[in-house]
Specification:
By secondary structure, the protein is mainly alpha-helical. Among the domains are: 69-95, no CATH class; 103-142, no CATH class. Helix content is 45%, strand content 0%. It is built from six helices and no strands. It has helices at 2-28, 70-78, 88-93, 96-102, 112-126, 136-140. The radius of gyration is 28 Å and the shape is elongated.
Amino acid sequence: MGRLLAGGMGALLLVAAGLFWWQGRATNEPPPKALLAPPPPPANEVLPEGDPDAVGEAPPMPGETSPQSREEKRFARYDRNRDGIISRIEMLGSRTAAFKQLDTNKDNLLSFEEWAVATADRFTGADADKNGKLTPAEFATTAPKRAVKPRCKC
């Protein structure tokens, strides 16, 4: 009977030591960056205006020598302050002008009706023969117009 009791106490002691070791290790190590969620933006934070005169891609980040992949270029376009993190403000800043154009009653809220009117107007403008259907050529006219990049004046 004494052996059984000693074995049980030894097992409990090992489990307790393992739990203390595991808990101590969990509090000493910072969580991986992938698990950290960005802090929510303050409620009174205002989205910045997009720069209508901005043309072309964002300048490269300092210290870069290798060519960027397509995704790295997209990331750099949104990361305005070049800190390696895209905030909500940076992400939505480039879409502010388009949002304001759709928000016809200027209440800073986009209702379904406002969006639907804009979509219907775009469809009506693209339907050249007014038959209620878009051919591939007519649909191609609905694509957003890209700004022409100025040539280098080197």
